[in-house]
Amino acid sequence: MHATATHDDSKGQYFWVWGALLALTGAEVWLGYNNQVFHGNSAHMLEVLLVLSIIKSALIIGYFMHLKFEKALMRWLLVFSVSACFVIMYFFFFPDADRIINLGVK
Amino acid sequence: MADATLEHAQHGLPGEYEAPLFGAYSKKVGMWLFLASDSLTFGALLFAFSYNRIYTNPWPTPFHGESIANATVMTACLLSSSLTMVLAVFAAQRGDRAWTRNWLLATMVFGTAFIVLHGMEWSKLIGEGLSIPGFMTILGVSQPAGAGELADISKNVPQFPQAFFGLTAMHMLHVTIGVIYLGVVAFRKWFLPILAVIWIAAAFLIPSGNVFHYPVNVLGIGLLVAAVILFLKPKDYDAHDVEVCGLYWHFVDLVWMFIFPLVYLMSTRIS
Predict the structure, then answer these.
(1) Residues A63 and A42 in one domain
(2) Peptide bond before B133: cis, by omega within 30 degrees of 0?
C-alpha cells in the first residue's frame, strides 16, 4: 500500500469534516432564505455563497480526496493548473456578459 | 510501472525503475488527471450558467421552499455518501472485505437516493411546465398546455431551463456512472444481473411520456461497458481500486457543492 494512502489519521476527523460540510450547507440555505442581509444585492450574495462553496470544496479535496496528504508537487500542480484554467475562463466569459448588459441587449 | 516501483520501495529493495514523480501509483495519477479535465467540463457549464445569470435581468426565481428542501436533502445524501466512501477506503486498506462491500453499498444507496430525488424534482418541474423549447418534443415528453409560472419562464427566459437542465443532467449522468462504478468494484460480476434487472424494470415501469423513458437506457449502456470490462479483464479489486473509485465519487460530490448554491439558492422564491 502506498505510504500517502495509509497515513495515520483517525476516522474522527472525517466525521468532523462531514459535520462541518453539513453545517456550511445549512448556513448556505439560511442565507438563501434571508437574503435581506445583503440588502437585495444578489452579486454580494453570490460572492458569499461562492466563498462558502470554495471552503466546502477545499474540505472535500483536502480530506475526503486525501490531496492534503499527497506529495507537494502533485498537490500544487493539480490546484494551480485547474485554477489557472478557471481564471482564463473567467476573463473569457464575464467581460462579454458585462458588455451585453452595457449595450442594453435584452 | 509505478506500482512495481512502490513494491520495491516498500520492501527496501533497489528498484530498477525511477521513483514516481508524484509519489502515487499510476491509477491514482490517471484518475486525478481525468478529474482535472472533467472539472473543466463542469467549470465551463457553471461559467455558462453564471454568464446567463448575469446578462438575463430579471432572472427567474422559481424554486419554492419544497424544491429547496428537496435539494438540501439531496446535498445531505451526497455529503453522507462521501463519508461512507471514506469508511470504505479505510476498510479496504485494512483488508476487511465485508465492511468494504458494506460501506460501498451504503454509498450506492445514498447515490441512488440522490438520483431518485433529483428525478422526482425534474418530473415535478416538467409537469408544471418547465421545459427546453423543442427538446421535449424530440424526447416525446408530454407536457401540460397550461400557462403556469414555469411555462411562462420556459417561453420568455429559455436560458433558464437550458442552463438548469444542461447542468443538472450532466451531473446526474456522472452520479449514475458513479453508482455503476461503485457496484462493479463492490460486487464485480454479481453486479451485472442486479444492474440488468434494474434497467429492465425501469425501462418497463417508466411511462413513455416521462422524460426519463429514454435516458434510463444509460443503465443498459453501463451494463454493456461493465460486462466488457469484467469479462475482458476479470480481477479482484484491491484497496487501490477502492481509493481510485472513491476519488471519482468525491468529485461528483464536489461539483454539487457549486451547483446547489448557484442553481438552487440563487433562484430561491421567498414568499
Answers:
(1) yes
(2) no
pLDDT at B12 over 70: no
Contact A48, A31 (CB under 8 A): yes
Please state, in angstroms and rounded to a whole number, the distance separating the CA atoms of residues B127 and B142. Answer: 9
Q: What pLDDT, on a 0 to 100 scale, did the predictor assign at position B2? A: 46
Return all residues near A8 (Cβ < 8 A) that are at least 6 apart. none
Q: Which residues on chain B are in Cβ contact (under 8 Å) with A79?
A: none
**Alpha-helical runs (H) found in chain B:** 2-11, 26-55, 65-93, 97-127, 135-139, 149-156, 159-187, 191-205, 218-232, 239-259
pLDDT in tens, B52-90: 887 777 788 888 888 889 999 999 999 999 999 999 999
Greatest mean pLDDT among A45-49, B116-120, B208-212 lies in B116-120
Residue contacts between A and B (CB atoms, under 8 Å): 144
Rounded Cα–Cα distance for residues A23 and A15 (Å): 12
Q: How far is A57 from chain B (nearest CA, A)?
A: 6
Quote the percentage of chain B above a pLDDT of 90.
Answer: 48
Which of A81, A83, A77 is closest to A54 using CA atoms?
Answer: A83
Residues A78 and A66 in one domain: no
Other C-beta atoms within 10 Å of B135: how many?
Answer: 13
Decide if domain B30-267 falls under CATH 3.40.50.1100.
no
- What are B25's three cell numbers? 501509483
The cell numbers describing A68, all together, are 492534503
User: Structurally, how many domains does chain A consist of?
Assistant: 2
ipTM of the complex: 0.85
Q: Which residue of chain B has the CA closest to A80?
A: B36
Chain A nearest C-alpha distance from B74 (Å): 11
Its domain, for residue A27, covers 1-70
